[in-house]
Write a structure and sequence with these properties.
- The protein is α/β, with parallel strands linked by helices and 345 residues long.
- It has a single domain (3-340), classed as L-arginine/glycine Amidinotransferase, Chain A.
- The protein has helices spanning 33-48, 60-72, 92-95, 116-119, 129-135, 168-174, 180-191, 238-250, 300-311; strands at 6-7, 15-21, 53-57, 80-84, 98-102, 107-113, 142-150, 156-158, 163-167, 195-199, 217-221, 224-228, 260-264, 271-272, 275-276, 285-287, 290-295, 316-321, 337-340.
- Strand 8 (156-158) and strand 9 (163-167) form a beta hairpin.
- The longest helix is centred in the first third of the chain and has 16 residues, at 33-48.
- The radius of gyration is 19 Å and the shape is globular.
- It comes from Lysobacter enzymogenes.
Length: 345
């Protein structure tokens, strides 16, 4: 099979479903389960307005409970499918499948090693998730490729046309013995990319991921990037995010043109027990016909919605309350994985 026979689709391309995992008392959400369940109910309600939701559940009791909560919220349950699969936690952006499309209409599920963001947390169940879902027949006309290389879905962005965007901080932390050229070659081969654009700046306090790109900068089209800005010189993020904005301005499309850049506003600091939480508006999810945007109950929510409406003029922008998610240092995109159209059996 040649390189041209596989392609890594952009998030805005047609989808089958969005994959998530329901939080329960055996996950890190145990201490604030009630709060985060409300976010998941709102998330499933938003997803199912546009397409199906596939929900991993740890056991029959969790499934029965989740079904009851979602049904009572008057969610269209014909668009909800439950899948029994054990998991350590609910960050499926990083433990779920990275799906490539074959020219013949089939799919290849890339199953990279998930190490709990460099060994910070136990991830033994999460690392088996793609294999277990594949064995259960969740995916149609698909082959699974196990890759012994630590890579998380939140660490990479593609425009669907051969350009990958990522951060050096994250990939260097995972693979300190490899050079940038070596990692570029590996990512290009596995993900079928013609070029890799690296960012050297950008981070969020309270972020466990070592600067995942999906908290910082995202493709909105092959010639457009949405990114998290910071306009407060007194904020600890100001210098880094300003430097990241300057880096993005130097990047060029494959046609040699500057990218159209959309700067997202900066939320006021959200502090929890003396700990700054990572509230990024860049952690949005694109679904069929809409963009689901994390909202934090901040005055900047409306401004972020307006920026995304400019970047995605043909999509509805739907705010989902995500303040409970950032208690565990992630947000809306981090807990979801879109599945391209045709891949769900």
């Amino acid at each position: 099979m040649t390189n041209n026979a596989l392609r890594f689709p952009a998030e805005w391309e047609p989808q089958s479903a969005v994959l998530i995992a329901w939080p329960n008392a055996d996950t890190d959400w145990a201490d604030r389960l009630g709060e985060v369940e409300e976010t998941y109910i709102a998330l499933v309600a938003a997803i199912t307005r546009f397409q199906p939701a596939l929900i991993c559940v740890a056991d029959d009791d969790v499934q029965a409970y989740a079904r009851a909560r979602l049904s009572s919220a008057r969610i269209d349950m014909s668009r909800v499918r439950f899948i029994d699969a054990p998991y350590d936690d609910t960050w499926l952006r990083d433990s779920g499948p990275i799906t490539l499309k074959r020219e013949d209409g089939g799919f290849r599920l890339l199953d990279f090693r998930f190490t709990g963001w460099g060994g910070k947390f136990d991830a033994s169940q999460d690392d088996l998730l793609v294999e277990r879902l594949h064995e259960q027949g969740v995916f149609a006309d698909s082959e699974r490729e196990s890759i012994d290389f630590a890579l998380e879905g939140g660490g990479i962005e593609t425009d669907g046309a051969g350009t990958l965007l990522t951060t050096w901080r994250c990939l260097h932390e995972r693979h300190p013995t490899l050079s940038r050229d070596e990692i570029t070659a590996k990512l290009s081969a596995w993900l079928r990319q013609e070029r890799v654009l690296w960012l050297d700046h950008g981070y969020l306090e309270g972020d466990d991921t070592d600067a995942h790109i999906d908290t910082l900068a995202r493709f909105a089209a092959v010639d457009a990037i949405v990114y998290q800005g910071c306009d407060d010189p007194s904020d600890s993020h100001y210098a880094e995010l300003q430097a990241m904005g300057a880096e993005l301005a130097t990047l060029r499309t494959r046609d040699g043109q500057p990218y159209r850049l959309f700067e997202l506003p900066w939320a006021q600091p959200i502090i929890d027990e003396d700990r700054r939480l990572a509230a990024s508006y860049a952690n949005f999810l694109i679904v069929d016909g809409a963009v689901l945007m994390p909202a934090y109950g901040d005055a900047a929510d409306a401004a972020a919605q307006a920026v995304l409406a400019q970047a995605f003029p043909d999509r509805e922008i739907v705010a989902v309350p995500c303040r409970p998610l950032i208690w565990q240092n992630g947000s809306l995109h981090c807990v979801t994985m879109q599945l391209p159209r045709g891949v769900v059996a």
